[in-house]
Amino acid sequence: MNGSALKKIPVTPISQMAKKDYDVLIIGTGAGGGAALWRLCKKWRKNKKRIGVIEAGDLVLPTHARNITGLNHKKLFNKLKSVIGDDLPHYSGATQALAVGGKTLFWGGVTPRLHPIEYKEWPIPMKDIENYYKIAERVMNVTQSYTKDPIMKTILHSLKDNGYPEATVVPKAIEINRKNLGILHSSDLFSSLSFLTSALNHRSFDLGINARATQIFPEKKRFIIKVAPKHNNIYFLKAKTVILSTGSLETPRLLLHSGVKGDTIGHYLVNHSSVRVKRALKIPDYLRRAGRVDILIPQSNSRLFQIQIHGKQKGLFLTGYGKVESRFENQLTLNSDDVDEDGVPKLQIDFSYSEKDQQIIREMETFVEQISSVIGLQRNRRNNDSLLSLRPPGADNHECGTCRMGIDPSTSATNSYGQIHSIPGLYIADNSVLPAIGAVNPTLTTISLAIRTVDYIVEHSK
Predict the structure, then answer these.
(1) C-alpha separations of 461 from 39, 203, 373, 422 in Å
(2) With respect to CATH, is domain 3-141+176-262+402-459 assigned 3.50.50.60?
């Protein structure tokens, strides 16, 4: 690991940040927070407005974990993550990763666009988000041209020839041609650190690390943010505008603990039901070729799930992601009788799959069996185990909807630009604003909306 790369992102002590008045303060450095910071620095590169960003975690990596030769990224993630699902029986697969860059340090880079049928539940016209998809895809280097491996072509042809013409290469945020142009640069698989280093190429900003925001207090024309640094005193930061990007579980937790009013904050928790094969399936000899497989069978109007096929010639894994209904009763609340080390009430989550969700799960299981048969994959069952397992809720890392956007304040937490209905100047730029995601990985959509939110903030700050 090149530890010196971490020094390229300067850090500002929270004690110094507490002495300043920020025009915009971003809380969280994951996908949404990183995108918001990059866009803000680009738009404000010629002015002297003050931009700050704080992160509850530390600077632990200089780039995506898989870009570092010799690093066991799975082992590192297991060491870094907090399995908060251990205390959430209805959402037992949930994890949290506190670090600059968040879970984008470890994600697979899968970046499909939302299926068009999902926009029926959105307050944004499809043509509007299309423009921001293009911006996000360009800056994230989204491509399907990262592989020309023989095995990929062979299995794609097999699927297309057997009734699955929609099968395609998984779109990924990955840089193919690395060039060192003498500027700050993160390489290969994309992470939010790329947003931070790109932002620094436009202008400076203050980054505070190991600094968790625990409460937000709206005042006249500004906000006071209570921050609890690790092993240190409490500080209070000041900002005219705040962008929350701490995720679909932590963002509503912060809002609820701050007393922010909103009938739907914490409700409408959505994720993906997910099934996957328990072990790699053997590829028949006549299909074996060199290289890696990354194939997507996308959601369609009638098929409310997507299937990802990945692996190498030694064996393939199949994972299905199913659409989950958006329901008010799937919610998170605060347990005032159980607080953490910073005095913040811990989460309680009520979550279950509806009958429609269960039907989609059954359809996914059948479909995975069919795809395995079409490709000719050979099962390696042990003790008559079933081929598939249903992952626990939260294990997909795709939770959304807990601060969903909309027109009506009685059924949504924010407006179409991510601003809390009841509090001008308080915005959200993370998965929690997404009202519907279908069966699609949400990261690209979240980043696109974060960029759109910043454009709105910049336009209305003139």
Answers:
(1) 14, 18, 57, 19
(2) yes
